[in-house]
Design brief:
Blueprint: H1 3-17, E1 35-41, E2 45-46, E3 52-61, E4 66-70, E5 85-98, E6 101-112, E7 121-123, E8 127-137, E9 141-144, E10 148-152, E11 156-159
Parallel strand pairs: 2-11
Antiparallel strand pairs: 1-3, 3-6, 4-8, 5-6, 7-11, 8-9, 8-10
């Protein structure tokens, strides 16, 4: 085989494996976690009885084809229990859509009560969130997946006095 014919065969193989002229190549699919959540406190150390802010932020998939639905009933300030902390009050902020994610956020005003915590580091208990992944079928109906659990990491907080 001559050098020119080998080059021609290679060009034909490249053309056969690439999209036709004028067509856009297929976009590679990227694997993204369906849900990611994190805690943030406004301080790393508190005094017994002192109020501080705790913010929960979650990012969930929210596209035309896939939507993550979180059971938020357990996140309401009146329903959430984070012993040994007391939730004084709280609020939910409006959602922010930044495709492919939807962000939702809760802010709680908290305090810790109890002399036994003086000079110790205590942690927020591990929080489990239930969610389902809904897949859209033909744009009109959706199919909900099985219930899954997401676990937030505990956050340490130092109690000064």
């Amino acid at each position: 085989m001559t050098r020119l014919s080998v080059l021609g065969v290679l060009c034909m193989q490249v053309l056969a494996s690439s999209p036709a002229f004028g067509q856009t190549p297929a976009k590679p699919e990227v694997v993204v976690a369906p849900i990611e959540c994190w805690w943030k406190t406004d301080r790393s150390a508190v005094r017994v009885g002192e109020r501080f802010s705790l913010t929960l932020t979650c990012a969930v998939l929210d596209t035309d084809k896939v939507k993550v639905v979180v059971d938020e009933s357990s996140l309401a300030p009146s329903a959430l229990h984070l012993v040994p902390f007391e939730i004084v009050n709280g609020q939910r902020f409006r959602d922010i859509l930044n495709s492919p994610r939807r962000f939702f956020q809760y802010q709680y005003t908290m305090r810790v009560l109890g002399e036994e915590f003086f000079g110790k580091e205590i942690t927020l208990p591990r929080l489990q969130l239930s969610y389902r992944v809904q897949n859209s079928l033909n744009g009109s109906s959706s199919l909900a997946g099985r219930e899954e659990q997401y676990s937030l990491r505990p956050v340490p907080l130092r109690v000064l006095s």
